[in-house]
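Justification of resources, computational component.

The compute hours requested in this renewal are based largely on the per-chain cost of generating structure records like the one below. Each record pairs the submitted sequence with a full structure-token output. That output is archived, and it is also reused by downstream analysis tasks.
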Amino acid sequence: MKEVKSKILVVEDDLDVAEMLNAYFRVQDYEVYTVNWGEDGVRSCQTVHPDLVILDIRLPDIDGYEVAKRLRSDRRTQEIPIIFLTEKRERADRLQGLELGADDYITKPFDVQELRLRVRNALQRVSQGSLNNPVSGLPEGVLVDEHLNRCMKKGDHALLLISLEHLDVFREAYGFVASDDVLRAFSLMIVNTMRELNSGDDFLGHIGPTDFVLTVAPANLSALYERLQSRLDQSLDYFYPIKDRERAAKRKDRLAVRMSEIALAAGGRISNAEQLKVELLRRKK
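The structure output for this chain reads:
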């Protein structure tokens, strides 16, 4: 099967630099697109869906900072790595780029080999996947797997699966921004409840977009379960607009929380994180 090439979008108004980067990265076996205006860069990101953007700051229409701001505010483009390419060297300029979510920053005149390595490293970070959920900020993926594997080896933790149900229905009715706000608030309530019980070894992470796994000392499980059940159940109605709360409360597909627990024992039939996540999600059904 033919390997899919990574796509790079170059937004650069200096035609000589744009042509050089196009030719150089094509030789490096990337699929390269070039535009010379900031507005064209924003539109190209939405249509081409590049894996990385090399973005000049000085552009003829809107500057690179505005391009980056728009990309980071659009769900379709907010995760694309951005490397700023600029003549500006001041610390304030670098900080402004980083505040907008730039992944890297290189100044002109630049070493093209250095730029190649920065591009490679940024793409590798993306291919390895995020270590934290972009909405809740909680660990997911490999961080959760590593923690669960450690817990299974020790066999001294209890697990709690906490699922926020019907968020997809809520999203269809009120939009992505509102549903993301719900997920952030829901996860924060769990974190705050854990802190109130002052158990330093507790861990919370995602095993699915709306499924959380919490590891806790067995002695603290009952108190944590009861407090979470009460707090989360009572809060869900308040996520709906006031005018819709009474009607939403009667729907079967309203926002709801479901929790299930499982004890871990060293040397048990579940031997790795993947098996454990399957078991947790099976209990959810």
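The first helix runs from residue 15 to 27. The domain at 7-124 is CATH 3.40.50.2300 (Rossmann fold).
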